[in-house]
Amino acid sequence: MTDYLPAVMAMLGPAQNRYADPAAWDTLHAELGIQLPTDYQTLLDAYAPIQLNGHLSLSHPATARWNLGDWIRDSARAWSEIPWDDLDPDEDPRLLFGLTELSFGTRNGLWPITSTDRGETLFLVAADDTAPWILVEDGEGGWARYDMSFAEWLYRYLVGEDMAGPNTSAFYPGPVKLCRLPMTADERPEPWSGPERGM
């Protein structure tokens, strides 16, 4: 059985840990009122703020620019403003996945944790009575559920599986393309590639 956290890190290359700061995570968890998964924290500490394969962006709680806490709060607010009462049954995540309510940024609601420039948003479902799981909205009203860790989701995303519903693969052969996001107005994105992975 694959151990997904080291498998993802093997694809991304050596951890950078440029902004790793346990206090920043403690502050974020206290502000949000939930605990984000350890594998998610480990990957963000190792690489974020970063864009992977030109699409998936990861922010970090210890940076002023590309700040994870700001992004989560802004995204949850924007998703909360959508009118959800007139959805078709095949587009209503409450009916599709047995959610008792559809809320964002609440204790038992959906927590946006990353997104792509293709319009996809990844949500952590952190209900008290279940193990955390992931919902992905594909940018066009379609939803998909993944009962797996963030590390497993990211691994499967990077190897080209459909990880935002049917026909959503974003596979790029060869090494993973990483791009460090600029931290000031004067900086430029810094692209590089992960190790060769035989794909």
Give the helix/strand layout.
Blueprint: H1 4-12, H2 22-32, H3 38-47, E1 50-52, E2 56-58, H4 68-80, H5 93-97, E3 110-116, E4 121-125, E5 133-137, E6 143-146, H6 150-158, E7 177-180, E8 190-193
Helix pairs in contact: 1-6
Protein name: SMI1/KNR4 family protein
InterPro entries: Knr4/Smi1-like_sf
Shape: globular
Using DSSP, what is the number of strands?
8
Count of helical regions: 6
The helical percent reads 25-40%
Q: Provide the low-confidence segments as ranges.
A: none
State mean pLDDT (0 to 100 scale): 91
Q: Please describe the biggest sheet, giving its number of strands, its sense, and whether it closes into a barrel.
A: 8 strands, antiparallel
User: What class, by secondary structure content?
Assistant: alpha+beta
- Radius of gyration over all CA atoms, rounded: 17 Å
* Separation, N- and C-terminal Cα atoms: 20 Å
The ordered string of helix (H) and strand (E) elements is: HHHEEHHEEEEHEE
Organism: Streptomyces kaempferi
InterPro entries: Knr4/Smi1-like_sf
Protein name: SMI1/KNR4 family protein
Structural features, described:
The chain has a domain at 36-81 and 99-182. The chain contains six helices and eight strands; from the N terminus they run αααββααββββαββ. α1 (4-12) crosses α6 (150-158). Helix content is 29%, strand content 18%. It is globular. Strands 6-5-4-3-2-1-7-8 form an eight-stranded antiparallel β-sheet. It comes from Streptomyces kaempferi. This is SMI1/KNR4 family protein.
